Amino acid sequence: MVDITRLSSSDMHFEQALDNLLMFEATQDATIDQAVLQILAAVRERGDQALIEYTRRFDKLEVASIEQIELSRDRLQSALQSLDASERSALELAATRIRSYHEKQVSESWHYVEADGTLLGQKITALDRVGMYVPGGKAAYPSSVLMNAIPAKVAGVQELVMVTPTPAGELNQLVLAAAAICDVDRVFTIGGAQAIGALAFGTGTVPKVDKIVGPGNAYVAAAKRHVFGLVGIDMLAGPSEILVICDGRTDPEWIAMDLFSQAEHDEQAQSILLCPESAFLDAVMESINRLITTMPRQHVIRASLENRGALIKVRDLEEACTIANRIAPEHLELSVAQPEQWVKRIRHAGAIFLGRYTCEALGDYCAGPNHVLPTSGTARFSSPLGVYDFQKRTSLIQASPAGAAELGRVAAILAKGEGLAAHALSAEYRCTK
Amino acid sequence: MVDITRLSSSDMHFEQALDNLLMFEATQDATIDQAVLQILAAVRERGDQALIEYTRRFDKLEVASIEQIELSRDRLQSALQSLDASERSALELAATRIRSYHEKQVSESWHYVEADGTLLGQKITALDRVGMYVPGGKAAYPSSVLMNAIPAKVAGVQELVMVTPTPAGELNQLVLAAAAICDVDRVFTIGGAQAIGALAFGTGTVPKVDKIVGPGNAYVAAAKRHVFGLVGIDMLAGPSEILVICDGRTDPEWIAMDLFSQAEHDEQAQSILLCPESAFLDAVMESINRLITTMPRQHVIRASLENRGALIKVRDLEEACTIANRIAPEHLELSVAQPEQWVKRIRHAGAIFLGRYTCEALGDYCAGPNHVLPTSGTARFSSPLGVYDFQKRTSLIQASPAGAAELGRVAAILAKGEGLAAHALSAEYRCTK
């Protein structure tokens, strides 16, 4: 029996119980931090030499010369050729759909001209060069390559540099094939904090990038936090979560499996179900207990569900939406009749999966939207990874002589109010018309 | 005589000299960091009581009861009434122009429906509640209130909470008037790390917000860095900079004053001029020496120009644009004939001011675009503050039964490739059509 928390929104201390359930403190380990600072300093000072040393030490990979850390584009293509037909076409279909969706996110430059000839606008440009971290070993996910690389390429990033550790030289064919499909420009077989340092500072071999994206372990996350400011970074992800709102009319096995699909990621992952029907919660519980023994990752699933999962009885779907907004989940399934009616009430979520047929797994792989989503309630203020993360804006101002005269007088008054005389004079010089 | 650096792009070690000039290490002071962590912990644990204690200690402000730290909206209105007519209309005109410009930045939700009925899209919502820090005392800038508050309000933020320290109870009428014009919802007279803590955690009196924006001193910046993740923050600003590219045909006094207008901010501010004409650089130097003695903030201007300023002779305007892209300046003036021709070559800048009539000061106050811009080369990967910083996106996926069947088969193949059996089954359950 899986010992999963059962709650009801009418419990006396429900709010507190929910807070406890959601609580997750990302511990910033001081030992990791110290190690990371040392690695970053070494890579900054000694470049390629430090990369070779750390790769030897941490990845057990002998690198005789620095050129060996780069994989050729031919190597990526041959990984793609090596896939069986169904895997290859699945990856390619996913890439096509992800590309189509992200093309809708491209921002265009704009401007307008005022009556006196003054032009105002915003110019949109892509980042020049982006680094993408792809974890090695077991956590090497080709879907993660697609989700990070495609928006960068759609944005028009000129050079996309992938880094991925290959412990003891082990290469993941699916990951390399995904890189081939996404036209990744360069691939280096380095990982950990040293790879983040190489991308942030540049070495003789690895080019310095403008932004680093992609998931990694605690060392990678700490290194990204430290280089933030020198380069851009994507969000720092917490454990993955799903919140399912069900009206009690979906097959309980489907819902149980949706909860499993989140729980199988790791023991900190969070799966929560909200439903107004007690009997349905019982049925899901029964499905959980029956299905879990069939799951290859049942130990992870059990630990996740028992640590952080919950089945919660709510008064009605309206209350379920209120609770969802409070949680601001990474993934929200609306497994209800007429989901359109309820989606309007949701203000905070990374992605919403509408209707009984839309399980989260579709979004993880191939529906089109990005699977890199804000976790731990950060959907209150942040967004899925998108093309907009690889574009930036520059304001444009061109005052006509008449415009400069009018604006100059206003600017001078405000500058004087702030005690900034040079600002005022600089504006007044232009008041010639 | 102002001892400003003179360089030429044909100097033997020009690249190195430019790097040295641009180098700015934001020192993260460990003492400040420790103090800030202590303050944040106290505010988290003891809420209003800690706020009262720190306000008494740091702002020399006796707060008998916690209600006293809030200013009423009537108080803001009376500040607005108290302004003289020219100041009031200058502030109002600036607000109107800033609002018009930012209204162009509003993103709208979108979706599309595929042939099989599957719907994909992105829903855009405003942040619920935003905190805005406004420095007190001398650095209290009403323009900063306009530039931070207006995009939040245009985005549709429901509640905008301003915090501003009032050392010894001193209120800045212009700042309060600007808050009235922008319809700021609540104002608290608190500052420093304790104000950031109050906004991030919430106290009995100060509501918890979703994002904190606005400039502040080293304590405020350190506090923002620490609460990042729990709430969103805007960028952490470095010293302000201007890069002027001039063809040598603008009045040298205008250019000198533009350099001053940046330099007068503080001693770390950076003003650089690029020009292909030596004689013009000499003329600007002469203007600098002549005009500096007339400036109220001449000591700051001198220190800034001597520490971090430079007049640089370039081969031609083409090379000037290349150097500008390398610097990725916060502010870039193209004080040249036909600036449209050159703006195309600029890839990295916070804001571009085109033509001889467009001095930076117009953009600081009232042209319309935001004056909160990426500094220290971060324009390579980040953007001016805008409405987009107060909106967030949620992905929408609604698979039709036929779509779920097709997508489910693809997702299952990819999930199996990643060793995630529950993902695969969850998708396959939906392959019923």
Features:
Rossmann fold; metal-binding (chains A, B); six-stranded parallel beta sheet; 16 helices; alpha/beta; 433 residues; 3 domains; Hstdl_DH (chains A, B); homodimer; 45% helix
General description of the model:
2 copies of one chain form a homodimer. Chain A is of the alpha/beta class and 433 residues long. Chain A has 3 domains: 30-233, Rossmann fold (3-Layer(aba) Sandwich), CATH 3.40.50; 238-380, Rossmann fold, CATH 3.40.50; 399-429, no CATH class. Chain A has 16 helices and 15 strands. Chain A has helices spanning 14-22, 30-59, 73-82, 85-103, 142-155, 173-181, 192-201, 218-227, 252-263, 278-291, 298-308, 317-327, 339-343, 360-365, 401-417, 421-429, and strands at residues 5-8, 70-71, 110-113, 119-126, 129-133, 159-163, 186-188, 211-213, 232-233, 241-246, 270-275, 310-313, 331-335, 351-354, 391-398. A 6-stranded parallel β-sheet of chain A has the order 1-12-11-10-13-14, with helices on both faces. In chain A, strands 2-7-6-5-8-9 form a 6-stranded mixed β-sheet, sandwiched between helices. In chain A, strands 3-4-15 form a 3-stranded antiparallel β-sheet, with no helix packed on it. In chain A, helix 2 (30-59) crosses helix 7, helix 5 (142-155) runs parallel beside helix 6 (173-181) and helix 9 (252-263) crosses helix 10 (278-291). The longest helix of chain A is centred in the N-terminal third of the chain and has 30 residues, at 30-59. Chain A is globular, with a radius of gyration of 26 Å. The mean pLDDT of chain A is 95. The interface between A and B is large, with 115 and 116 residues.
